[in-house]
Amino acid sequence: MRVITLSINGQKHSRAVPPSTTLVDYIREELNLTGTKKGCDLGECGCCTVLVDGQPLLSCLTLAADMEKKEITTIEGIADGAKLHPVQEAFVEHGALQCGYCTPAMILNAVSLLENNPKPCRKEIKECVSGTICRCTGYTKIEEAIEAAAAKNGGGGA
Ligand code: FES
Ligand code: FES
């Protein structure tokens, strides 16, 4: 066992875990932040995406021990208290989810995209969501929601 201290959603957490613990297991099993999903556990489905220093990263392929100096953001960390993040609001308004399993990853990818590129074109939005597999909704509503969130910020392209 090794004590690993991570900063997640602005709070420090310390847990004694096996050194081989992945970030997704640390987040879900140790902290009970179950918004981060575990699908394939092989780096293929994208459901386990979190933001590390603002960039999307697959938490199933990442050792928790390698993240000690980073700032990690999960889906639980993007709302402002009871107020949803604009991307979350847009997903609700556009019905951009069904079972919701892919949704945290889709939203975090979109949050990162819009922070780096407030006016993405549809092609850039498609690329942004292409690494996450959605088995139910299809991608059209998800892309429309991200476009709408961009438009609210004065961005959004054709
Ligand atoms: S659970 Fe990480 S990519 Fe599928
Ligand atoms: S909403 Fe079910 S996997 Fe995307």
Number of helices: 5
Shape: globular
Q: What is the CATH class name of the largest domain? A: Alpha Beta
Uncertain segments of ≥5 residues (pLDDT<50)? none
Ligands: FE2/S2 (inorganic) cluster
CATH architecture grouping of the largest domain: Roll
Hey, roughly how much beta strand do the residues contain?
A: 15-25%
Mind summarizing the main beta sheet? 5 strands, mixed
CATH superfamily of the largest domain: Beta-grasp domain
Number of domains: 2
Order of helices and strands: EEHEEEHHHH
Q: What does this entry look like structurally?
A:
The protein has 158 residues and is α+β, with helices and mostly antiparallel strands. It has helices at 23-30, 86-93, 103-116, 122-129, 140-152; strands spanning 2-8, 11-17, 49-52, 55-58, 71-73. It has two domains: 2-77, Ubiquitin-like (UB roll), CATH 3.10.20.30; 86-152, [2Fe-2S]-binding domain (DNA polymerase, domain 1, Orthogonal Bundle). The protein has five helices and five strands, in the order E-E-H-E-E-E-H-H-H-H. It has a five-stranded mixed sheet, sandwiched between helices. The longest helix is centred in the C-terminal third of the chain and has 14 residues, at 103-116. The protein is globular and about 45 Å long. The model has no long low-confidence stretch (mean pLDDT 96). The structure holds FE2/S2 (inorganic) cluster (2 copies). One FE2/S2 (inorganic) cluster binds next to loops. Residues 97-103, 134-137 line the site of one FE2/S2 (inorganic) cluster (FES).
